[in-house]
Amino acid sequence: MTSTLISRLTTAEEMANFRFYHYEPSMPAAIIFAILFALTTILHTYQIVRSRTWFMFPFVIGGIFETVGYIGRTLSASENPGPYDKIPYIIQSLLLLLAPLFFAASVYMELGRIVMMIDGDKKFFIRRRWLTKTFVIGDVATFLIQATGSSMMASKDADKVDMANYLVIGSLFLQITFFGLFVVTAAIFHIRMALAPTPLACQRPWTKHMIGLYIVSALILVRSVVRTVEFIQGYNGYVMTHEIFLYGFDAVVMFIAVVTMNVIHPGDVAFHIRNSVAGGEKADYQEVDMEDTVV
After folding, report:
1. For residues 97 and 150, is the Cβ–Cβ distance under 8 A?
2. Checking CA distances to 273, which of 47, 72, 170, 260 falls within 20 to 30 Å?
């Protein structure tokens, strides 16, 4: 009870001195990353439409969130040295926090498609459909918790901000847990397949897509750990009061993650799946009306 009281007093003190930013947001940095994310998102949209890789659509949503989030920071920077309008702050705070969850959703679904492409279901310890559904449901739950917490952060009510902080921290721990389990699951599958590859695994480029999956997963995990530390420290913590952490451990790492998927795009995964069902490698991106091949 004493610790709870101290926590509430600390939050009240923070709210008494509350300000949206502990620094003047950088206009050049915000503009640069708004443009960079816009460009890579446009490229992702083109790649998805061209290869009909529909499970990558959440990735595009995440890219839009990043773009609009940095536009929000640009608007805030235009108000330097303050006072800052509440709306741009909420936009950048909410969208930049939630964007990686959409990246994660596509990564979860990609693993299921890689397994399907090389006929690797027997290398899993659970059914592939349950694997994808479990992680996607976890991602949705994390999204809802984070969205709720983020929407409460700009409140002037100390109790609401306190609750928002707990919600965001809890959701970030949940995200790290699910992503950690996902990486372990992917690694187990990778090892089993490498030791006893299926005939299709010897013919199709599954390894490069697993590498891309690991890179993106590692970057999202790094970003999530830093964000968790940020919210644990609170509004007056070292991470929250230094803008370099936002750009160094969020903007940069998420941009690398998005570009990685541009370079190692799973369009050929979708292509091979459609060809397998259509009955030949010459079936150039044919549509197949089956649940397992909605790629």
Report:
1. yes
2. 260
